Every structure is written in C-alpha cells, then in structure tokens.
Amino acid sequence: MSDRNQKLPPFSVNLGVLLVALVLNIAIGAVFIPPDTLLRIVLSRLPFMEIAADWPAHYEAILLSIRLPHAILILMTGAALGSSGAAYQGLFRNPLADPYLIGVASGAGLGAVAALTLSWPQSLIGFYLIPISAFIGAVLTVLVVYNLARVGNLVPLTTLILAGVAVGAFTSAVTSFLMLNDNEQVHRAISFLLGGSPMAGWNPVLAALPYMLLGMGALSLLGHPLNLLQFGEEQAKQMGLPVELAKTVIIVVASITTAVAVSFSGVIGFVGLVVPHIIRMVWGPDYRRLIPLSILLGASTLLAADLVARWVMAPRVLPVGIVTAMIGAPFFLWILRRAKAEVFW
Amino acid sequence: MLQIENLRVYYGQRLVVDNSSLQVEPGQVVALIGPNGAGKTSLVRAISGVTPIHSGTVRFGQTDLTGLTAPQRARILAVVPQVSFVGGAYTVAQAVMMGRTAHMSWLGHPSEKDQEQVADAMAATCTDILADRRIAELSGGEQQRVMLARALAQQTPLLVLDEPTNHLDLQHQSTILSLVREQCRLRKLAVLMVLHDLNLVSLFADQAALLVAGRMVRFGTPGDVLTAETIGSAYQTDLDVIAHPHTNRPIILQKDHLE
Fold first, then answer.
1. DSSP string, B162-175
2. Is residue A95 within 8 angstroms of chain B, CB to CB?
3. Chain mean position to CA B166
4. With an 8 Å Cβ cutoff, is B75 touching chain A?
5. Domain segments of chain A: what residues?
6. What is the C-alpha to C-alpha distance for residues B43 and B21, in angstroms, rounded to an integer?
7. ipTM score
8. CB within 10 Å: which end of chain B, N or C, has fewer?
9. Which residue of B has its CA nearest to A1?
10. CB neighbours of A298 closer than 8 A, spacing ≥ 6?
11. Are B221 and B208 in contact (CB under 8 A)?
C-alpha cells in the first residue's frame, strides 16, 4: 500500500531523530560528556572490547549509574505514551483522545498520592511503594470505567469516554482532597502529577522493561484492526473483524502500557496526544506503521523535553510535563497550521 | 442462494422486522423497498451480523449465516455501506485492500492473491485511476465506487448494498447501478440492495421485495410489485404508474400538486 508522502523515509528519519535525542540527552548535564567518549565508555563495557580508559573516572559513574538508566526510562515512557496515544485515538476515532482518556492518569495519580500521604505500616514502605500503588490505582480505575460502560457483551465507546471522564473527575477530587490534608507531601505529590519524578537507577528500568516490550510489541501488531475500526465498528465487523474482541485487546494492552509508564515516571501530558498526530500528518493514517513510528517519535520527544527540563533552570529540574506542554503546544499548533489544507484525520 | 425465512428482528423492545422471508438467486439483483422506517436497514444489519436475530433463519446455500463468526461471515457476505466520510484519510488503494481482511491474517499483510483481487476490483469499478487519492477528496459517486470495489475485493458470493444511490445525481446513480448489475452477471453474485427510488428498482432490479412496517407484503418482479394500488397503499400516497416509453417497464409518478 502506498501512501503519498514518500519523500521522507519514515523509519530511517525517526530512528535517526531518536538516536540524536538519545545521545544529546545522555551527553548533556552538569558535566558534559562528549558523544565519542560516551560511545567508548559504553563499548568498553561490552565483552571482547579492548578500549583503553582515557576518560576521567567519574564520567563512567555518571554515565552508567545516572544518565543511562534515566535516559532509558524516559525513552520507554515516551515510547509508551506515543504508541498508546495512537491506539486510543484509533480506538475512539477521536483526535482528542490521549492515553489518559479512560482514567489511567487520574487513577495512577490517586494511587501515588495515597502512597505519599496516607500512613502505611512500616513493612510496606519501600522503594516501590509509589509505582506499585500508582499502577494499582491506574488499573483499578480503568477496570471500573470499563465495567461501568459495559452493556452485556458490548462496550459502547461513547459510554466508555463519558464514564472515563466522570470517574476521572471523581478520582482527581479524592487526590486533591488527600493533598490538601497533607502539607508535607504536597510538593512530591504535585511533582508526580506533573511528571517531575521519574525514578532513578537501573531497578525501575529493569522492572518496567518486560511490560513495556510486551505492551508496545503487542500494540505494534494491532495496526490492521485499528485501520478497520476507522471505518466504524459496523463496517469493520462486515469486513470480518471480531470487533468486541479487538476493542478489548486494544484497551487492555494500551492501558497497561500507559499505567507502567505513568507509575515509574509520573503523569506526563501532551506527548500521547500530539506525537501520533505529527506522524499521521507526515506519513498518513496507516496504523500498521503509525504505531511503531509513534513509539520512535514519542521516545525522541520525551528525551528532548527531559533535556530541556534539566537544562532550562539548572541546577533545578523542571517537571517534564510542564516542558512537554509549554513547548509541545506551540510546536503542535505550528505543524497544524502548515498541514491544515491536508486531510490527515 | 440466499434464503431468509420468517426473520424477526428487535431493536430494543420494538419489533422492526416481523416474520419476513425472501430469496436471492446467484446472478440476480433483488431490490428491497419500502417506506422510511419499514425495517429495510434493520434487515440488512441483521443478515450482516451487526444486530442480533430474534428468530428465523438466514442461509446461504447450506450455510447458516446466523451462527458464523465475523471473519467467516465476511467470506460469504460483503456490504456496501451508504455514502459516508468515515476513513477519509485513507487512500483508495488502502481502503479497498481492507476488503481482503477475511482472507488475510490479523496482521493485515496482503499476499499476491490479495493484491490481484484488489487490482481486479479496482479495475472493474474504474477506481484504479484513483488509487493514491484520499477518500475524503473524492466526489460522492467516486466514494460509492470505492466502497463497491472494497466489497468486490472481499470476493463473496453474496453482495448487500444499503441505498447505494443516496446523495448521488442521475449520472452517478445509473453508473453505480449498472456496475452492480454487470458484476452481478459476471461474477454470478446474489445481490440484495436497499433502494429508495422506485423507478431505479424498475430499471435495474430483477425482483422487488416490499417491506411495510417490518412485514414483507409483496415479493415478485418489479412489474408485479410496482402497481399503483400496492405502492400507493404501502407509501400512503396518491400516484400513477405509467409504462416506460421504450421498454414498457412501470414508471411511478407522484400526484401533480400544481394542477
């Protein structure tokens, strides 16, 4: 199948952009590590590589235990938000849909804030209390929304959106209530809600990695059902798609992928909304490549935003959610105005 | 042969198709007619598996269509929907390829045979020259031909069309209906189509099935069904039926209100 825009080869362009974003994100910081040194440090860690260590010793520590795990977590988060945003937009056939539409963000927010503000038995408090509690909040909220919207075997999508909005408003209200009652933790809570608290070190990366790989792998294979759904559920069924099964699989996979991302990195807005639109405007609506490309561009976008968030008020670090919205919104509007003559949605 | 027997369909609590039967032979075009709200679209939705059937049977040959999964049904029955702008961002070639869904794996990667069938369906409907255009940029007539191409690419023995001439001008009405007839004869398709314009029924259909308030009140040749008495009472309108000047087929005229 051909699409019109053959001028820019989609995968090489997006892989190139991702590589640049990744290298810059790792290289730049309080200490600048030149990209070539960076490459040699990483290579020196691989077996059978004999590379003389001619760099200052602390470079290696900064790179391997701080910058690299941070960049990989950010990369995975952006990739997850981009691809689940694309899947939600396709499922709901709504250009305003984002990964948080049916309650993942508000549920994760409630979970995280509950973990921060309620007094927990000492034995439960540990490194993973916040992400686990955020994940449970996200998944429970989506389950509640899904079951509220379900009529027998059918899940009408309009009802799903409305239930998502209503349940989201409720959980956000509970979150605000918990925050107002606890002045000590309110700063950390706000930070989570603005995506300002990605967890540090390799442990969260390793914990998130399997879910991310499975989730995004599965999303990448759901392109054809999503294409069919763009013609409406009725036509999709008449063309041979088991519609209710496809919808359930898309909701489950996209929600879990988003929930994992949010649990470890906080609620980061705008990436999941905008990234799929940019891909769609440049390379067309075919979800079989829209999803993989949204993975790549989502990752690049968040790596770039994270770099800005660390750099703009250094040594203070801004919540990355503020950056994605402040830079993302005008950038998106610029693209939108350039593309408005084209039918992209 | 498509055989619908004693079909009953409910929409919520309301009975919308009541004990209706009809048959469509391969190579034959059957027009489904009736006033607004008579249950024509409900019948189409029921046999295409979109709404559940309350009772009765829908068979194609030996196969009971009601018990099939969506992919199984889509290998027997293809539907041409009413003109609409859904999926407008896709190119014509992409949209027609989606008609091959029931023949592909769920990954949607076309085989050589899929490519051939799509090329064939596009050539038959003269949509091959539109292949790289986006659906939203096309005229209503072109869009309807694309939807027909998609249904033909599905390669089913049974074709159902829901008001294919809706919103089309005279030229495009006749283009699409001629295409349907031609493909019906060529591929030996059993064709069932909902039509609003009774004169088009007279000119393009082999049989007409008249549905009123969910009941099948008449099923026969257009000459039998399109009489002033039958149509007048079904549509509750005064009208005259005259003979076509060249072919003698029945032509329906509304009462002249300017007289």
1. E-TTTT--HHHHHH
2. no
3. 12
4. yes
5. 3-344
6. 11
7. 0.93
8. C
9. B94
10. A78, A79, A80, A81, A82, A83, A85, A271, A272, A275
11. yes
CATH of domain A3-344: 1.10.3470.10
* Residues of B with Cβ-Cβ distance to A288 under 8 angstroms: 107-108
pTM listed for this prediction: 0.91
Q: Specify the DSSP class assigned to residue B35.
A: S
Q: How far, in Å, CA of A224 to CA of A221, rounded? A: 8
Any B CB within 8 A of A243 CB: yes
A94 in contact with B, Cβ within 8 Å: no
**Could you give the dihedral angle defined by the CA atoms of residues A71, A300, A192 and A307, in that order, rounded to the nearest 10 degrees?**
60
B36: closest CA of chain A, how far (Å): 21
With beta carbons less than 8 A apart as the criterion, state whether A309 and A323 touch: yes
Q: How far is B214 from A186, CA to CA, in rounded Å?
A: 63
- Whether chain A has a CB inside 8 Å of the CB on B154: the answer is yes
Minimal Cα–Cα distance from A239 to chain B, Å? 6
Which residues of chain B does A89 touch, with a Cβ-Cβ cutoff of 8 Å? Answer: none
| Interface touch A231/B87, C-beta < 8 Å | yes
Write out the two tokens for B256: 């002249």
Is any Cβ of chain B less than 8 angstroms from the Cβ of A235? yes
Please identify which residue in the block is written with the tokens 């290998």: B75
Per-residue pLDDT of chain B (259 residues; tens, 9 = 90+): 999 999 999 988 999 999 999 999 999 999 999 999 899 999 999 999 999 999 999 999 999 998 899 999 999 999 999 877 678 899 999 999 999 999 998 888 999 999 999 999 999 999 999 999 999 999 999 999 999 999 999 999 999 999 999 888 999 999 999 999 999 999 999 999 999 999 999 999 999 999 999 999 999 999 999 999 999 999 999 899 999 999 889 999 988 888 7
B96: closest chain A residue by CA: A1
| Cβ pair B98:A239 closer than 8 A | yes
Distance (Å) from the C-alpha of residue B87 to the closest C-alpha of chain A?
A: 5
DSSP A154: B
- CB of B102 within 8 Å of any CB in chain A? yes
Give the CA radius of gyration of chain A.
21
